[in-house]
Amino acid sequence: MRSYLTLSIAVMLPLLAGAQNPPSASPPTSSSPAKSIGMYAYPKNNQGSDQQLKDENDCYGSAKQNSGVDPQAPAPAAPTAEQQQAAQQQAAQQAGSNAPKGGAVAGAAKGAAGGAAVGAIAGDAGTGAGVGATVGAVHGRRQKKKAKKAAEQQAAQQTAQAQQQAQAQATAQHQASLDSFKRAFSACMDARGYSVQ
Question: Is residue 117 over pLDDT 80?
Fold first, then answer.
């Protein structure tokens, strides 16, 4: 009898402890697919939270399949610093090949002609032509360097603008894809009796 009483107490204690501290209702372990895409779903027909979570998961999968869009896929990334630097170097090389050539020779020829004219007035056309050619060559080289630098800067600006346009276009396409997914998700949830915003 004593063992029976001990056994009865051993069985009853856990049951009494459970009655005093009922298990708390734990929230669903899965997060709301609607919230993950920035939308809110409200039940119109008093659906429970478990049913709503099931419906959201079903509609999420359906929208993903029908739209061909995975909203969890990352947005297109901006070009890395290395990619930008490589593009700028390529643009600078291209600009260098487009820069005017023969700046020193053309400058020397113009300078020699001008120097000869000045030298003729002073009485020594040969010396004037030599000085004019030297000054003209130096001036021609400077002009060539300026033109090359300006072409490089312009090419770098054009490259940066092209990258910005490409990034903006990729971002717009990604947003359009997400909008398509959201419309498919919303239509599915609406058909199951939810208001989705």
Answer: no
pLDDT digits (tens, 9 = 90+) for 31-75: 899 999 999 999 999 999 999 999 999 999 999 999 999 888 887
User: Is there a contact between 87 and 109 (Cβ–Cβ < 8 Å)?
Assistant: no
Contact 36/165 with Cβ under 8 angstroms? no
Burial group, residue 46, by CB count within 10 angstroms (0-12, 13-18, 19+): exposed
| β 194-196/41-43 pair status | antiparallel
Coil vs helix vs strand at 47: coil
DSSP string, 8-26: HHHHHHHHHHHHHSPPP-P
CA-based end-to-end distance of the chain: 67
Between CA 85 and CA 149 the distance in angstroms is 17
Q: How far apart are CA 57 and CA 49, in angstroms?
A: 12
CA-CA distance, 49 to 89, in Å (whole number)?
58
Distance CA 6, CA 16 (A): 15
Q: Which residue has the higher pLDDT, 21 or 2?
A: 2
Q: Which residues, 6 or more positions from 148, have their beta carbon under 8 angstroms from its beta carbon?
A: 95, 96, 99
Is the torsion defined by CA of 133, 134, 140, 144 positive or negative?
A: positive
